[in-house]
Design goal:
This protein is an alpha/beta fold and 483 residues long. Helix content is 39%, strand content 20%.
Length: 483
């Protein structure tokens, strides 16, 4: 299935035949199509369309209920396309088909949840402290949304839908590795009746992203991706006082206490370390184990790594697909080499599997006898590589967990609820899981330190697309707002 180079601007798919780039399937290493590398003119046209739609169009003047009804219609249309969407995502970035279809269906359900949240969130609050006041939420304006390749459908929904429900207009840029699947969501929204210009899509690489975030017509930038790129975006937005939301990298620690249940550790860290071939920003890639049961924890991790079935991602029996690109596999292999050179013990994995013969696969990998100063324990690898680090006591474990520039996720495994909460409260991170690996897109998600600014998802994610306006009322106007 060859995909064609198109941009979605001002309500229309626009063909582009100049400035193209190839999109390669990571399991076959074959081209599945070409995408447009949007030019400065393309980006400018898309932002101007979004600005016109925001300033002069009907969308932000609709009631929240009317916007929510349209999103719900679009969710139904998008849900019908779940299998097609999943197939294309698997072709683009290699996640197994059973997972990609499930995630597409979940994204459609998430659209409905966003609509329900919007309906339940008041846009005006009446206050009396210091005098009668109305605090009003107003849409922030034109939003630039930039997503990574490791979860393209869910990321698109999470960045586009709450912004639309708030009354904003959006210019969306998917990752160059996954430029095509967004078409299914766009077409569902268009068929549901979304006005022209409210949503625009430009594809391209890093330069297209720079053009978008620096465009003077953009009011807010939402980005998910690497910390290095996030710093560049944050600096650009700060110089122009643009609102910015950054969900960045991680090197999250899972603390295994001595009373942890082995089955919970194996199951939780199988997902936490190796799901999506480890290409997850919230991955629990540092496993901290007490010295008394260190060898047992290493054995549990080896069993967790061995439970995955590598193979053709279009085969329903496959549970672990390839890495997204040859470049990414080389990056992961380089880190594995660094771990060996630093003296860490390679317990399992570390190489390319014999089968399948094609594709950018790498085996689930576990390192033992590592310490927290090694690069494999400090830097985000973004591959199926887990590092097991020993600790002396729970206080030492908390210290090691917090000894990181990142603070996105974390976990503790223990049979003692009080210990679990005590550890959870002392780890400096934006999200934390107990006895599991959890990603809940109905509550705020984001990080501290070098893992970003702001929160995606949940009520807080929705509210981030508003500006607050305070209206100081007088005796005549106060009754118009008072409950």
């Amino acid at each position: 299935m060859q995909r064609t180079p198109r941009l979605f601007i001002d309500g229309q798919w626009v063909s582009r035949t100049d400035h193209l780039f190839d999109v390669i399937c990571p399991s076959t290493e074959e081209r599945i199509g070409q995408a447009a590398d949007a030019s400065e003119e393309d980006v400018d046209t898309a932002v101007r369309a979004a600005r016109r739609a925001f300033e002069d169009g009907p969308w932000r003047r609709l009631s929240v209920g009317e916007r929510a009804e349209l999103i719900e219609r679009a969710a139904e249309l998008f849900g019908v396309r779940a299998e097609q969407t999943g197939w294309l995502v698997t072709a683009e970035m290699g996640v197994p088909i059973s997972t990609s279809v499930m995630l597409a269906r979940r994204a459609a359900n998430t659209m409905i949840a966003w609509a329900e949240l919007a309906r339940s969130t008041p846009l005006t609050e009446f206050r009396t402290a210091g005098g009668p006041t109305a605090v009003v939420r107003e849409p922030v304006g034109v939003c630039a949304a930039i997503s990574p390749w490791n979860g393209p459908v869910g990321m698109a929904v999470g960045k586009i839908v709450p912004a639309l429900l708030a009354g904003c207009s959006v210019v969306y840029k998917p990752a160059p590795e996954t430029p095509f699947d967004i078409a299914f969501l766009v077409d569902a929204l268009r068929e549901a009746g979304l006005p022209a210009g409210v949503l625009n899509v430009v594809t391209g690489g890093a330069e297209t992203g720079r053009l978008l975030i620096r465009h003077p017509g953009v009011d807010k930038v939402g980005f998910t991706g690497s910390t290095a790129v996030g710093r560049e975006i944050g600096a650009a937005c700060g110089s122009e006082f643009k609102r910015v939301q950054l969900e960045l990298g991680g090197k999250s620690a899972a603390i295994v206490l001595e009373d942890a249940e082995p089955d919970q550790v194996r199951a939780g860290l199988a997902m936490g370390c190796f799901f999506n071939s480890g290409q997850v920003c919230a991955a629990l890639s540092r496993v901290l184990a007490p010295r008394r049961i260190y060898d047992e924890v290493v054995s549990w991790m080896e069993q967790a790594a061995g439970g995955w079935v590598l193979g053709d991602p279009f085969d329903s029996a496959t549970t672990l697909g390839p890495l997204v690109s040859e470049r990414q596999r080389m990056r992961v292999e380089n880190y594995i080499g660094l771990g060996v050179e630093a003296g860490a013990r390679l317990v399992c994995g570390g190489g390319r599997p014999e089968q399948p013969g094609k594709g950018w696969f790498i085996e689930p990998t576990v390192f033992a006898d590592a310490d927290n100063t090694m690069r494999i324990a400090r830097e985000e690898i973004f591959g199926p590589v887990a590092v097991v680090v020993p600790y002396d006591d729970p206080e030492d474990a908390v210290r090691i967990a917090n000894d990181s520039e990142y603070g996105l996720h974390g976990a503790v495994f223990t049979s003692d609820p009080e210990k679990a909460i005590s550890v959870a409260r002392r780890i400096r991170t934006g999200t934390f899981s107990i006895n599991n690996f959890v990603y809940n897109n109905r509550v705020p998600f984001g990080g501290v330190k070098s893992s970003g600014i702001g929160r995606d998802s949940g009520k807080e994610g929705y509210e981030s697309f508003f500006e607050l306006k305070t209206i100081n009322l007088d005796a005549g106007t106060a009754p118009l707002f008072a409950p």
